[in-house]
Amino acid sequence: MSDNKPTLNMEQLASLCKRRGFIFQSSELYGGINGFWDYGPLGVELKRNIKDVWWQDVVQRRDDVVGLDASIIMHPRIWEASGHLEGFSDPMIDCKTCKGRFRADQLEGTACPQKPSKRVGACGGELTEPRQFNLMFKTFVGPVQDDSSTAYLRPETAQGIFAQFDNVLSVSRQKVPFGIAQIGKAFRNEINPRNYTFRSREFEQMELEFFIKPGTDEEWHTYWVKARMDWYTRIGIASEHLSQYVYGPDELAHYASACVDIMYAFPFGVQELEGVAARGNYDLSRHSEFSGKKLEYFDQESNERFIPHVVEPSAGVDRIALAVLCEAYALEWIPKEGTDGERQPTRAGEKVPDGYEERTVLRFAPCVAPIKAAIFPLLKNRPELVKVAQDLYSELKQHYPVFYDQTGAIGRRYRRQDEAGTPFGITVDFETLDNQTVTWRDRDTMSQERIPIGEVAIRLATALQ
Ligand code: ATP
Predict the structure, then answer these.
(1) Same domain, 321 and 394
(2) Atom 13 in ligand 1: residue holding the nearest Cα
(3) How many angstroms does the Cα of residue 317 sit away from the middle of ligand 1?
(4) Do 259 and 276 meet the contact criterion of CB atoms below 8 Å apart?
(5) Helix axes 383-397, 456-463, angle to 10 degrees
(6) Number of domain units in the chain
(7) What is the pLDDT of residues 294-348, one digit of tens each?
(8) Rounded CA gap, 57 and 51, in Å?
(9) Span from the CA of 274 to the centroid of ligand 1 (angstroms)
(10) How big is the chain by its Cα radius of gyration, in Å?
């Protein structure tokens, strides 16, 4: 973990996220609803940027992947074919003492609601035998609520892709190997949502089904694991905080030939961000069987007809956003204005040294930062400075999400943007009026340099590539 991480606790991060408008509890006005979260003005931009970078890298910059946006509620037979109706369940136990319900395979990390210092079971409460609980949310389509109108909110986006495989293949002029990608909401009635947004009941997924020729599974699986690992470093996650969990043969689903989970070292443990699975032809075969329609591919080169195999990288947007926030969060001691000294990471439990103050900073990679740059006139009561700063702001705003702030001392304005994770600060001061240069401040190093005002846009463009 990087130097600041020992000081990171999830309560502090959650409090910053609420205070700065990244994440709010859903329905907070009514006491909240467990497992659901809302993203505020900065959070929505962060999530959108993560999705945009994924879409660019996985779809737009490739010739062999196309996109899809399937509906959330689909024909219930899809969930029969996929196996979700029968098998998408977690083992649940009840505590007869506190009436709580818990995931039987996660008791280790679950506190007793009545005696939080003890874990469920170790608190003396009597537990029932585990029973299987299906995680799909049910609803009804149309005015009559009976078995024939039952439908499900999708627990993953992937099945929409398999169900539209034939249509997409016929319109996209793609040849195997090729992929279909989708970003969208998924819903799981998790028994114990926990670890902030990590395990929620409503979340977003970014999934790719990459269809391949049978026999090339291993090669393509290796390719996608590497591509996906590299992607996380592109959005600012240090490679030393990433790891892989490789499934053993006895852990794989019967149809899968390989599966690797991409893991991140969260403050609450090393946990999955994304799974990359080689699923054989299971999904297309099952949909073919249940729909009675052939879902095959004709390979003109080899004159062969086959059901493509698939490699599936499946990632959760909310978990990635949380990892990005954990990774970016830092507390450091900085010398007060006019004092000499070096920036240093906060040492947990120690007082801020004399001559220093503490700053909170979110060190987002520029590509995911909600605001790319903030523009400040040095003083708000000097119209000549305000005019130049506002003109620059209006120009940049045509291309990037930028922020204008003229309120308060300049140091406090910088600090506010540090907390929002804005990578660059641009200040218009009296020298600007003389020589058309502005101050360009780097969030992470806090270093400042003067650059011509005419170079600001190109500087920003370069930093955001
Ligand atoms: P877990 O074992 O943590 O429940 P999973 O292996 O069931 O996850 P997948 O079905 O492989 O997860 O889903 C793909 C991705 O979707 C996960 O890697 C994760 O990023 C995201 N995801 C799954 N369940 C949730 C959830 N309840 N809340 C937030 N994200 C989730």
Answers:
(1) no
(2) 314
(3) 10
(4) yes
(5) 40
(6) 2
(7) 999 999 999 999 999 999 999 999 999 999 999 999 999 999 887 888 899 998 8
(8) 10
(9) 7
(10) 26
Q: Which atom of ligand 1 is nearest to the CA of 203?
A: 29
Query: What's the CA-to-centroid distance between 206 and ligand 1, angstroms?
Result: 11
d(CA 146, CA 15): 44
Residue percentage of the chain with pLDDT more than 70:
98
The Cα–Cα gap between 297 and 445 comes to 54
Cross-strand partners of 107 = none
Distance CA 456, CA 426 (A): 8
Q: Atom 24 in ligand 1: which residue has the minimum CA distance? A: 199
Instruction: Report helix angle 217-234 to 41-55, nearest 10.
Output: 140
In eight-state DSSP terms, residue 1 is -
Q: Are residues 170 and 313 in the same domain?
A: yes
The pLDDT value recorded for residue 43 is: 98
Query: Which tokens belong to 145?
Result: 């609520």
- Are residues 377 and 310 part of one domain? no
The answer to whether position 131 is within a domain reads no
Give, for ligand 1, the residue of 189, 272, 310 to mutate: max count of ligand atoms closer than 8 Å to Cβ: 272
- Please check whether residues 286 and 379 belong to one and the same domain: no
Q: Which residue segment(s) compose the domain that 452 sits in?
A: 371-463
pLDDT tier at 256 (50, 70, 90 boundaries)? very high
**Which atom from ligand 1 is nearest to the alpha carbon of 193?**
27
**Considering the domain boundaries, does residue 204 fall inside one?**
yes
Task: Find the 429 Cα to ligand 1 centroid distance in Å.
Answer: 49
The SS3 of residue 442 is strand
Q: For 187-197, what is each residue's pLDDT tens digit?
A: 999 998 989 99
In a domain, 427, yes or no: yes
Which residues approach ligand 1 with their CB closer than 6 A?
156, 188, 190, 199-200, 203, 205, 272-275, 314-316, 318-319
pTM exceeds cut of 0.85? yes
Same domain flag for 230 and 300:
yes
232: in domain:
yes
The DSSP symbol for 252 reads: S
Nearest to 364 by CA among 231, 199, 234: 234
Between CA 246 and CA 275 the distance in angstroms is 10
Of 1, 30, 158, 173, nearest to 83 by C-alpha is 158
| Two tokens, residue 105 | 């395979």
Residue of 59, 345, 407 lying closest to 210 (CA atoms): 59
Query: Which strands sit side by side in the sheet containing 202-212, from one edge to the other?
Result: 65-67, 178-187, 202-212, 309-316, 269-278, 258-266, 242-246
Q: What local confidence, expressed as pLDDT, does residue 4 receive?
A: 43
Alpha carbons 220 and 336: distance in angstroms, whole number: 53
